[in-house]
Design a protein that fits this description.
alpha/beta; Malonyl-Coenzyme A Acyl Carrier Protein, domain 2; Alpha-Beta Plaits; 2 domains; four-stranded antiparallel β-sheet; 9 strands; globular; phosphopantetheine; Ac_transferase_dom_sf
Length: 330
């Protein structure tokens, strides 16, 4: 199962160690940058710049790059081991997953990114906070227009809303003993603040003619927690509405592990540069007992974005080959 990251998980030079090394990663990235012209050149420059790089805090930079890198990484995995049959994307990662299963034409990734950026212009500004607590332990009154934006783990809740209201809530939470961290976002993604942007993006997506996923490919929605239906996939506002809807990532991942984690077992391919997508899964009984396993696709920490990316990716491909050989024999 391929896990693809979204806003907040962007990192300087994420997956850049595969660029120019893995052809099936490089080609989609080059096509993406090329189709965006001068804007693509600026995005390439921002992507390859080492840390610290404040540009990645800007949604107009982070969102297109997360989409492009997630799509290219999925293409590279598919070329090396066969297309993933099951995909789970966080936020814009879900749109990358949709491109990988044929809902949107891969050639349109650049245009999709541009349409998403236009939808965000002059609306939805605010921020996002990660809180080390389950949703049920948080105050009932979060403040004006502040909402739960994502459930990323058993004790990982993300809140989003207008900047002033979010700042007041952050002070209140810290005073109450909560551990709080601001995420790299200038927009209040997955909250009611994004309602207008979601409608505009849905209308723009209609021009791309979304289709049902290819047979044998399944995207599990973090909005519904179950597989995206053919009807949903063809509805542009299903994908556009994601901007304003909460991301129930951990409930979706937990349900998959509860259902399939032991028989037949799942191989979780973590496409994030910080290993955040697989972090909550490592505590699930199916993973702890070895029935399912986590396989990172990219290097982490100081090695991220450099030659170690290619090493870790090659190790992941080798591990998948071993796993498929074992399945065939058994």
């Amino acid at each position: 199962m391929l896990l693809l990251p979204g806003q907040g998980a962007q990192r300087e030079r994420m997956a850049a160690g595969l660029y120019g090394v893995e052809e099936e990663f490089t080609a989609p990235m080059e096509e993406f940058f090329g189709r965006l012209g001068a804007a693509g050149a600026r995005l390439r420059s921002a992507w390859l710049r080492p840390a610290p790089n404040g540009e990645l805090d800007e949604s107009a930079v982070a969102q297109p790059l997360l989409l492009a890198v997630g799509h290219a990484l999925g293409r590279a995995v598919g070329a090396a081991t066969g297309p993933p049959g099951l995909l789970l994307g966080h936020s814009v990662g879900e749109l990358a997953a949709a491109c990988l299963v044929g809902v949107f034409d891969p050639a349109d990734v650049g245009a999709l990114a541009a349409a998403r950026s236009r939808a965000l212009e002059d609306s939805g500004h605010g921020g996002m906070l990660a809180v080390a607590a389950p949703e049920g332990e948080l105050p009932e009154d979060l403040g004006p227009r502040v909402a739960v934006a994502a459930l990323n783990g058993p004790r990982q809740t993300v809140l989003a809303g207008p900047a002033m209201a979010l700042a007041a809530l952050e002070r209140r939470l810290r005073d109450g003993g909560f551990l709080v961290r601001a995420l790299r976002s200038g927009h209040a993604f997955h909250s009611p603040v994004m309602a207008g942007a979601a409608l505009r993006f849905g209308a723009a997506l209609a021009e791309f003619g979304p289709r049902a996923p290819r047979p044998g490919s399944t995207v599990v929605s973090t909005r519904t927690g179950v597989a995206v239906t053919s009807e949903q996939a063809r509805d542009p506002h299903f994908w556009g509405g994601q901007l304003a809807a909460p991301v129930r990532y951990w409930p979706a991942l937990r349900a998959l592990l509860d259902t399939w984690g032991r028989r037949p077992g799942l191989v979780l391919l973590d496409g994030s540069a910080d290993r955040s997508l697989s972090a909550p899964a490592r505590h699930h009984p199916a993973v702890r007992d070895g029935a399912s396993e986590v396989v990172p696709l990219l290097a982490a920490g100081r090695d991220a974005g450099g030659p170690a990316d290619a090493t870790v990716f090659a190790e992941a491909v080798h591990r998948l080959g071993d796993q498929r050989d074992h399945t065939a024999v058994s």
